[in-house]
Amino acid sequence: MLLRSLYIMKCPACFGELKEIEVGDLKIDACFGGCGGVWFDAFELQRVDEESEDAGAALLHLQRDEQLVVDHTRKRECPRCKGIKLQRHFFSARRQVEVDQCPNCNGYWLDYGELEIIRAERSDLSKAAATAERLNGDTIRYVYRLANQKRPQL
Are 75 and 102 in contact (CB under 8 A)? Predict the structure, then answer.
């Protein structure tokens, strides 16, 4: 079990104070009223990154200051590990969302809107996989024969 520190965690994007909020059985740190970003400790993101996981829906539209401008190019520090810079990498195969991950504690920082994109992408991939599963070899051979059979001349 990861023990939460007693110090105030600062938002790596806008430097506001992160507030702990309960989402289902998770305690997530969010920049509520600031930039709207969310900090996930190790393995928490995997519990809300699919549309079927109800807890994640509450994190999609956090209250935020829409006037606040965040520099997405600046290197960010881990809000949990003092002096450790977060590393940016793509979170999925489609390379739609770049997330910030701590190499020390394996936590993730997601900017406002990134969780929604991740959840939608995972949903699309699940639907595509289900469709592909239904297209078995017999179906593919049948469609191939239909496409390649000679049509009568009129």
Answer: no
In which element (H, E) is residue 90 found? strand 87-90
Q: Which domain holds residue 34?
A: 19-148
- What's the gap between Cα 70 and its chain centre? 18
What is the count of structural domains for the chain? Answer: 1
Residue 24 maps to a domain: yes
Asked if the structure places residue 6 within a domain, the reply is: no
Q: What is the pLDDT along the chain (154 residues), one digit of tens a residue?
A: 344 445 689 999 999 999 999 988 899 999 999 999 999 999 999 888 877 777 778 888 888 999 998 998 899 999 999 999 999 999 876 777 899 999 999 999 999 999 999 888 866 655 555 555 555 667 777 777 777 776 666 5
Residue 1 forms part of a structural domain:
no
Per DSSP, what are the bridge partners of residue 19? Answer: 30
Tokens of 119: 């959840």
Assess if residue 14 is contained within a domain: no
Contact indicator for 65, 35 with CB cutoff of 8 Å: yes
